[in-house]
Every structure is written in C-alpha cells, then in structure tokens.
Amino acid sequence: MNASINDIERLIQLLAKLPGLGPRSARRAALYLIKRRESIMDPLAKALDAAASSIQTCSTCGNVDTVDPCSICTDPKRPDDTLCVVEDVADLWALERTTLIKGRYHVLGGTLSVLDGIGPEDLNIPKLISRVKENNVTEVILATNATVDGQTTAHYIADRLKDTGTRVSGLAHGVPVGGELDYLDEGTLSAAFKARRTVGE
Hints:
With 201 residues, the chain is α/β, with parallel strands linked by helices. Helix content is 42%, strand content 11%. The strands form 2 sheets. The chain has a 5-stranded mixed sheet with strand order 4-3-5-6-7. It has a two-stranded antiparallel sheet with strand order 1-2. Strand 1 and strand 2 form a beta hairpin. The longest helix is centred in the first third of the chain and has 18 residues, at 37-54. It is elongated, with a radius of gyration of 20 Å.
C-alpha cells in the first residue's frame, strides 16, 4: 500500500528536525528515500527500529552503545589511569576517530550554564570526581569545547580535582575559540590533543 500524503509530510517534518536539514533539504531527502524504497528506505527503517530498541546509555561513562557498560569501558587494552572528559557523545566519537585517546572517557552531558540554570549536579560531574578518586586516575584530559561555557566547566572541574594529585590537562593549539569538537577534522583534533596543557597554570 502506498504511503498517504500525511505519512509523507510526517516523514519530511521528522527529517527536517535532523541537524543540517531544513524543510527544502528534508523534502529532497524524503523523495530520495521514497524512490529507493527497497535499497535504502526499508533497510534504514529496520536499522532505526533495531537501534531504538537496543541502544542504551553506558552507566559508567555516559557513552551510547548496545551494551552496558559500553565497549570502550570494557576494552581490556585501554588503561584506567587516563580519563578524557567530553561534553557530549558526539565529541567522544570525534576524538575516537583520531585514535589518539588510549584511555577511558567520561561524558558530562553538557556544560555549566548560569543562564540556563545548569549546575554541577545537573551534569555527570559528581560521578567524574568519584571515578577519578576510585580508579587512581593519573591524568584527566578536559576536552571541552572552546566556548565560554565549555571553558567555565573545564576550570570548575580542574578546581574540584586540585586536591586529588591528578594531573589535569586541556586541549590547546588547533581548537579555535567558539569551535565545537564534532565539527573539527582529525588533523586539527590531533594537533590539539598532542599540545594539551595543564589546566590552571
């Protein structure tokens, strides 16, 4: 049975909510899917359904995966003494593409924001502090975005970890002010990671 106009419009409206897609590009994407129903649309629908039922948030680091703890947290080849802190899962994935992070991750779930009323308890900061203390972490890499809120969050975490004896470093050269990790290429991220510096100096 063919999809009704209402179903097609609903598809377009949902596609338009995706990052980078406006109403016009959503219509083009919808038409593309409709024309390639068997080769793309049907497999995509099945993949979305499977993902919706199997994907879960890692209770350890905040990553998303089909298992909990996630595959990164359970990877025996990764050392426990280095923890890379990111704002969002997209940032974690961006750093993973560089293959530079050999340790573990911790997803904050956002940044501190006075204007939005987001405080430390609204993020995964308390859990981060506990992980650092319980797992004898020797270095915490604060890979927050180079925005005002991102840097405010990094300085807050660095202050909270000051008495733990853990080295706290942050990304340096390569990340432009106002830039977000998910939009940076691997080369820029690599340069920023290699030139990380101790926060608070």
